[in-house]
Amino acid sequence: MQFKCMRCLECCRQYWISLLPEEAEKIARKLKLSLKEFIEKNCVVLLQAYPFSKSKQSFVHSLDKFPSRIQGILKKKSKASHFMVLPLIALDKTEGKCILLKGVNCLVYEERPKQCALFPLISIQRTKTSKEHYPFCKGLLPGKEFKVNKKEVLGHYEKVRNHLDEVKEKGFQGIWPVIPEKGMLMLSNEFIDELKKGEFIELI
């Protein structure tokens, strides 16, 4: 495959874009907001849940820790009694697209998160072709396969891993100056439902 961005903006609609603390700080400065104001106005808590064996490991919660209305959904989709829940701050969406996308322009393009800058080179899995990973991407054209800069991609994942280690050590609220009022729960890569702060606070 060859890639040429067609500005279809589907990647701005398809994904919840998670942020590292340094990325959030850069975007806040770009928007001339304090970090606290930026998070309150533009962010959600993204909770990525993965079925997990019963364990006392960090981030692992039993099913009964989830809101009762969510427990039924999870039971239908998984037989797991425990889930590893990775909490991240992510950009909110409005009208089905990233909140920082105005018309066809990104308000913070020069300071956009690495997750955006790397797309569609973000995946290092080779079990599928690029087109299978991102069937909605109109910029993936027939032709020569592009090469993924694995060093750059792995470097980003290493930063995410280090951030989660820091959350494990200091707590989510020890890292972020404010917690958004709403959260988005994902089961692996599938969106489950929106959660209110009172419903997800135990999970972070």
Task: Explain what the structure shows.
α2 packs across α3 (35-42). This protein has helices at residues 10-14, 21-30, 35-42, 68-77, 114-118, 130-133, 150-170, 172-175, 197-200, and strands spanning 2-3, 18-19, 43-52, 60-62, 82-91, 93-94, 97-98, 101-102, 105-106, 140-141, 182-187, 190-196. It is an alpha+beta fold and 204 residues long. The chain has one domain (2-199). It contains nine helices and twelve strands. The relative contact order is 0.23.
Key features of this structure:
alpha+beta, 204 residues, two-stranded antiparallel ribbon, globular
CA(first)-CA(last) distance: 40 Å
Helix/strand structural class: alpha+beta
Spans of 5+ residues with little confidence (pLDDT < 50)? none
**Sequence of secondary-structure elements:** EHEHHEEHEEEEEHHEHHEEH
Apparent shape: globular
Number of discrete domains: 1
Measured as a percent range, the helix fraction is 25-40%
Number of helical segments? 9
Summarize the structure.
The protein is α+β, with helices and mostly antiparallel strands and 204 residues long. Helices cover 35% and strands 25% of the residues. It contains 9 helices and 12 strands.
Topology record:
Layout: E1 2-3, H1 10-14, E2 18-19, H2 21-30, H3 35-42, E3 43-52, E4 60-62, H4 68-77, E5 82-91, E6 93-94, E7 97-98, E8 101-102, E9 105-106, H5 114-118, H6 130-133, E10 140-141, H7 150-170, H8 172-175, E11 182-187, E12 190-196, H9 197-200
Parallel strand pairs: 3-11
Antiparallel strand pairs: 1-10, 2-5, 3-5, 4-5, 6-7, 8-9, 11-12
Helix pairs in contact: 2-3
